[in-house]
Fold this protein.
Amino acid sequence: MHDILQGFTMYVNGDDFGEDTEELTLPVPTPTTQNYRGGGMDLAVEMPMFALEAMEITIKQAGQSVRVQRMCAKGPGSRDSFQFRGAVQSDSDGSIAAHVIVVEGSANADSRDSWNRGEKVGFNWKINNLRYFRYEADGEVIHEVQAWPPKRIVYGVDQLASVNAALGY
């Protein structure tokens, strides 16, 4: 393993929630695909379309954070800003690189751990309805995706430039 996550934290609307955050599952932008087999084709192919699958982040936290629970189940149009920061160490030279994920979306409850006297009890939740997603590694933007106006930057290349130009954006 060349790049090893040594620690991470989570900020919600600027407040640090890292102490209680045990586990994150972060998305990777994935194009929607459509199975296609033309008239003379024996082998079907999964053709990527100019659209991405919906993205979601799942979070496991220790404790019963009321601050997090207050954000859950808000109505339409209510979104929050989230930032996830990781310290990734290179196995080859020992250097530490900051990995930063910035998203805008809606917090929603997923499940609660069973309550047991004298034991750690957690709260699982997710961020869906992602309208913005950016992943940087050591200051370099790897992915930047925005719902509206449409934006999809992959490793510095604007994947939607020609489509947006054709549409007048």
Observations:
- The mean pLDDT is 91.
- The radius of gyration is 19 Å.
- Residues 132 and 146 are 4 Å apart (CA to CA).
